[in-house]
Amino acid sequence: MTAFFDLPVRRFRANGVEIAARIDGSGPPLLLLHGHPQTHAIWHRVWPELTRHRTCVAADLRGYGDSEKPAASADHAAHSKRTMAADMVALMRGLGHDHFEILAHDRGARVAHRLALDHPEAVSRMMLLDIAPTLDMYEGTTRAFAQAYFHWFWLIQPAPAPETMIEHDPVFYLRSVMGGRPGGLAHFSAEAMAEYERAARQPGWATGICEDYRASATIDLDHDKAGRAAGERLRMPVRAMWGERGAVGRNFDVLALWRAVADDVTGGPLPGAHYLAEETPDAVLAEAGNFFGWR
């Protein structure tokens, strides 16, 4: 297999936007989705093992990395998780994968959640890293969670205030968010950090991340509430993992919240904080191999 950073970043038209991705490996298809404020490079440490067992598609979400960055909209629909999920379904179908597995972190895991609800026929199983369902996290917010996840409430403020401040020094913002977790920036390789910083300097990045969070606090919650009222649930197997030193596990009963919205949930804590694929790659791979069935 080709080393992760030696692989070309390919670009595809999907759902009306350009989506960037790296692709390699063999076997059943596995869609890999990253979180904030990063890119698909979060998977570089687990990539060699994953690609031995799966055809891996590591994509940048719209608004992030090298994917297209749509303009802001009043209803934030262009950055809703429903729209982001449709991007990924179109990407995978365009590559010939009508049915696939998902491994996703943070914002990407929120996209995966909506994808599996809207397109259940496409997803065989999914492993989600360090999130509980978005609706429950907002409704269960405490002072402790708000302090740990301050950016949830700052990025959703009306434009252009947060964008203007981020664009003044996007690398400072990125390093502040990533370095503010337990362990600081020591978890990240120089090559990966250079990639995240390059992506943060791109025009439209600040708008993309703010709109992602604004959508999660508005239109996404409307979709979630309507879906729950209609009885929608995840029917495929779900594995939910979180960092034992992170804010999600400290502030929420992760498994209980997922079991309230899904039929088949397993999981538990991993020995990290938040950026688990980079902090504890061996633990993530062990869980993934067990869950997806190559161990």
TrEMBL record:
The keyword Transcription does not apply. SUPFAM superfamilies: alpha/beta-Hydrolases. Transmembrane segments: none annotated. Coiled coil: none annotated. Its EC number is 3.8.1.3. The keyword Hydrolase applies. GO terms for molecular function: haloacetate dehalogenase activity. It comes from the Bacteria. It is an enzyme of class 3 (hydrolase). Keywords: Hydrolase. Residues 28-176 form the AB hydrolase-1 domain. PANTHER family: EPOXIDE HYDROLASE. This is Haloacetate dehalogenase H-1. It comes from Achromobacter animicus. The gene is dehH1.
